[in-house]
Structures are given as structure tokens and as C-alpha cells.
Amino acid sequence: MKKFKAGNQVNQGTYKSFQPDKIDQEWKIDNMELLSLLSQADRQIGRLDMYSEYIPNIDLFISMHVLKEATQSSKIEGTKTNIEDALLDKEDVNDENRDDWEEVQNYIEALNSAITNLEKLPFSSRLIRETHKILLQGVRGKHKLPGEFRSSQNWIGGASINDATFVPPIHSSINEYMGDLEKFAHNTESFFPDLLKIALIHYQFETIHPFLDGNGRVGRLMITLYLVEKGILKKPILYLSDFFERNRTLYYDNLTRVREKDDLTQWFKFFLVGVIETAKNSVSTFDSILKLQKEVENKIQTLGSRSSNAQLIINYLFQRPIIDAQKVKELTGLSSPSVYKLIGELENLDIIKEITGAKRGKIYIFKDYTKLFK
Fold first, then answer.
1. What is the pLDDT of residues 87-123, one digit of tens each?
2. Is 237:280 a contact under the CB 8 Å cutoff?
3. How far apart are CA 284 and CA 259, in angstroms?
4. Cβ(62)–Cβ(51) below 8 Å
5. Domains and CATH numbers, the chain
């Protein structure tokens, strides 16, 4: 990688665009520190993947990981929805927060749809475009060609293209660059470790910036899709947006450093540290979830004959940790007085907590569970 060249500034008449070098080529690693980090990352991701086989109802927990990923990835772009807000139904969200809420919901739908589509579609431009279409449907970017690569020049930072921080490649070269990226993703002739491969793909995608809007969110979402498609993860349980959000300045600085100083190694190191830290945190979260499950089951056993109905509610809360009286009634079939009595008992056991402060239309959250994802 010592010979790596990120690309060149090319004069487009009134401005210069950055035209990256293509990545579908043979790569060699010559940095021992990088190899050590790669080994650690492989170990941690293997450990995390093992959890997905042995944890019962893993899909219930994945839904919360996806929710956290959606809020954190959107937060990097300036959206301010938190996990509690994201769990609410649309009518329960304040009008001023509704656009942010919808962007997070789109991210959840886009990721879930992309994971499902992987069963019939490879990791490809088509999959990326279809995911982008869902991401931007009905929200602030809906007029910015959802599901289509841009047909005009874009730029990052600055009021105009002339004082931009970064000008991505000219739009007429996007299909060629994305074709190269796709070939690299599926190149089996020259070996390159998959974790470094997706790190390079993420960098190249953000550099190409193929859409008018949503590039950051799609680029981060691609990381999980690639790991699942390549069989590195059996389930989508590794999300790096939280790490990128907490280290936002370093995230952008390291991407810029590749373009300006041809320093790909530093970006790889940052990415692998993110994988290691995120995988460790995810394992810790799964451990905490299993511990919480046991604690809650022990608590509801004290309810005697009502414990079976309480268990139905708990099973629901582990999937979507917010509930109201109407949902409790649907789940249990109990009369209204019995519903409110059961809710009161779950409050007394410190399992759920009312969050609206209202006299009517009360909403309850499974607070110890949501706390694990913060």
C-alpha cells in the first residue's frame, strides 16, 4: 500500500473535481501494526458472530440494534431523534421532530429491506440504489433523485462549489466508478481481507458520493450488508455508526487524509479499531440482555397467576420496548380494569415506566432495556 495513490484533482472548467483512482486491483499489506489490528478485529467479530447462534430470539435484539444504528447514523447527518423518540408512533411525535423521526424510520426500513434483498440480490449498485430509494422516500431528500445516481455535480462544505471542502468526481464518471467498486467487492482472483475490503469500499463510496443526498447513511449501511453477504456475520449485528458518531471528527479527518495525503493505512487502522470496539460492546450488550431477561423473569414470577400474561408483555417489550394500555389489551385479551392493574404491577416491579406524564394516552417504556443501547 506504500504505492497507493488516492486520485487527482481534475479541472472541469470553472472548478476542479477529485477523480479517485480505481480500487479493483491487487493489494498488498506491508504494515505489521495493521496486521495485528486485523487479527484482533477478526477474533472479536468471530466472537460476536458466535453469539448470534446461541442467543434465543436473536431477531428481537437485532431490531433494537437496528434502531440504535438508525438514530446514530442519522445523528451524524444532523438528525436529532433519540431511541425513545424513534420508538414512538408517528402521531405521538411532536410536529417539529416529525421529519427527523421519519428519516430514522426510513433508515430502519432501508436496512431491513436490504438485508432481505441480499437473499436474491448480490452486494451491488442495484442493491445500493434500491436501499437509497427507501431511505429518501417522503423525507427532506425526496426531491434529490431517490434510488438514482446523481446527474449533476455535488460538493461537500462551503456555500458554493468554489469554496467547497471537497468536490467529488464529475457525475458522468459515477457509473464507471461504481462498476469498479462492485467488481472489487466480488473479486476472488486476488485475495484481500474482507474487513479491509469493506473499509476501502466505504472510503471509495464516500469519495464517489454517487447520490445527491444520503451518501453517508448509505455508505455506513453498506458495511453491515457486505459483512452479511460475505458470511462473516450470520446476522446483521455489527453497526459502526455509534463509533463513527462518537469519533466524528476523526472519522471525517481520516477519510480526508486518504484523499489529501494518500494515507490509506491510517483509515484502515481507524476502521479496524471501530470494528474491535463495536464488536466488544455488542458482546457486552448481549450479555447484559441475557442477564436482564433472567432478572425480569424472576420478578414476574412473583405475580402468580398473572405471570403468564406478564410474560406476553415482556416478550413484546424485548422486541419493541414501548407499550400502552391498548397494546397490553391486544396481547393479553384482558378487560380494561385488569389491563391497568397488570400495568400497575409491572410499574411497581420497576420493569416499565410511564414517560408522557399525561393523565390519558399514557405510554410506558422498558427503561432498563433501552438503557443498554445508549
1. 888 888 887 788 888 888 888 899 889 999 999 999 9
2. no
3. 35
4. no
5. 7-19+30-285 (1.10.3290.10), 296-371 (1.10.10.10)
